[in-house]
Amino acid sequence: MTATTTSSQHRALAQSLADINQQHLLTFYDDLSERQRAALLDRIAALDLDETPALIKKYVVTDSGSPAFVPSRTLDPAPYYPADCESAQRPWDRASFLLAGEELIAQGKIALFTVAGGQGTRLGYDGPKGCYPATPALGKPLFRLLAEWVIAASERYNAIIPWYIMTSPANHEQTVRFFEDQNWFNLDRAHVMHFQQGVMPSFQMETGAILLDQKDAPATNPDGHGGSLRALHRSGALEDMRRRGVEHLSYTQIDNPLIKAIDPVFIGLHAAAPDSSAEMSSKMVEKTLPEERVGVFCLADGKTSVVEYSDLPDKLASQRRDDGALRFNAGSPAIHMISVDFIRRLNEGDADFALPFHRAQKKVPFINLETGKRIEPDSPNAVKLEMFVFDALPFAHRSIVLETPREEEFAPIKNKNGADSPATSQALQSARAAHWLEIAGVAIPRTPAGDPDCTLEVSPLVAMSATQLKEQLTQNPSKIPTNIAPGDTVVIEP
pLDDT band for position 351 (50/70/90)? Predict the structure, then answer.
């Protein structure tokens, strides 16, 4: 960028900032080098300045201090398809929806979409979370697990399954470099697209002023997993899907190594169930404790919605049915099917992108405008805004929910120790492999507590379900070990 171009951009942005009372972002402009000036102007230009005043009024400087969750007039448990398709509660034809899903995959109408903007900081890992070694025996990174799902499903259904990966400004370059270093996990790189999620300004809590993180950079934060739907549109990914004929996305987050990334039964239900509009569908896992920190699927004024655990009134969260199970028991593991047309409608409709923002008060370091020194606050001083993907559910005409057993598909890695840690996730991964092997007829040594007394790992390249593993044992018995002793580590790879 030339000095003349920088000067012209500076004048335009100075006026735009003055119009919304954010001109302080240029306080140190004259002290910066030409390179720093250009960087600052580009960073400011990347913000959506037009929407800033309305956001400040609604979410930052509000009469109540923070917009609170307002319960709907009616809030009931959301209905769902039970994991047991022969359940008396709601029987359904799994075989027909499996076939419908397999046909869509084979026709090239399904893509995988992974939200992977996080860093491994909370795990004590220096790098993108998707690079974290997650499996119990080989320590495969999370990205490799998903890549193996794509390869396995592509080969099984003789189809191209594009993979769209949303990174963040903090980890984009590292993520792409990791894929290059890993030879793209043997994927065709022409069918893998990385793009960055958007960011939101971090606002000073009392005034709504956008904070400066550095003299040449406003303070920003990722706009949340809900921002992924906006980023798909802005990045050109939706247009790429249109060219390819992709109609539906399997939405995953990067931190769950048990996820069935391409699930034909779920795909078929989403696309063909009579009570689905095929716009956005979800999986649920059964909550066992009222205080579990997961959102809950509810019917809010007749529309399927997710209510945050912190927003669901205690009286409702603790209600139980006659059989003792929680009445509001449908916890959200953040697994969805979303149609491409639905995402396009959210972005290009009359009301433009319509997801609400959620407000969080955080400690955000900032540059003192008088001294130029960086301040590390010891208490919350800022408001961060982000969108949640499940807030798109009420915009769907008819949305369905499918139960998936927790032990089959939910083993997130979020914390270094304790619940949802690598240790608990790896134990659950090994337990699912043991369950699949037992269904296939393999004896598994177990502890007195009933846990597998061995470490097991099954690659999706061998089997994506217990049924497929049983098929492999029949067709290729030499590939599946049948004599597993206590303490063994068994890896089942192609």
Answer: low
**DSSP code per residue over 70-125:** ---S-EEEPP-B-SSTT-SSS---HHHHHHHHHHHHHTT-EEEEEE---BSGGGT-
Residues with Cβ within 8 Å of 208's Cβ and at least 6 positions away in sequence, in order, are 56, 57, 60, 61
Q: Which residues on neighbouring strands pair with residue 101, listed in sequence order? A: none
DSSP tag of 365: -
Strands (E), 332-454: 336-339, 358-362, 366-367, 374-375, 382-386, 401-403
Q: Enumerate the domain spans of the chain.
A: 3-45, 75-419, 421-494
- DSSP H or E run through 232: helix 227-234
Residue 369's pLDDT band, with cuts at 50, 70 and 90, is very high
Segment 464-488 mean pLDDT: 93
| Helix (H) / strand (E) containing 284 | strand 280-286
Q: How far apart are the first and last CA of the chain?
A: 52
pLDDT in tens, 126-167: 999 999 999 999 999 999 999 999 999 999 999 999 999 999
DSSP-derived 3-state class of residue 39: helix
Helices 227-234 and 237-244, axial angle in degrees (round to 10): 70
- Model confidence over 63-101: pLDDT tens digits? 544 455 555 668 999 999 999 999 988 999 999 999 999
Statement: 75-419 belongs to CATH 3.40.50.2300: no
Instruction: Assess contact for 106 and 273: CB atoms under 8 A.
Output: no
Name residue, tokens 């599946």. 480
Decide which of 70 and 52 is more confident: 52
Phi first, then psi: what are they for 243, rounded to 5°?
-65, -35
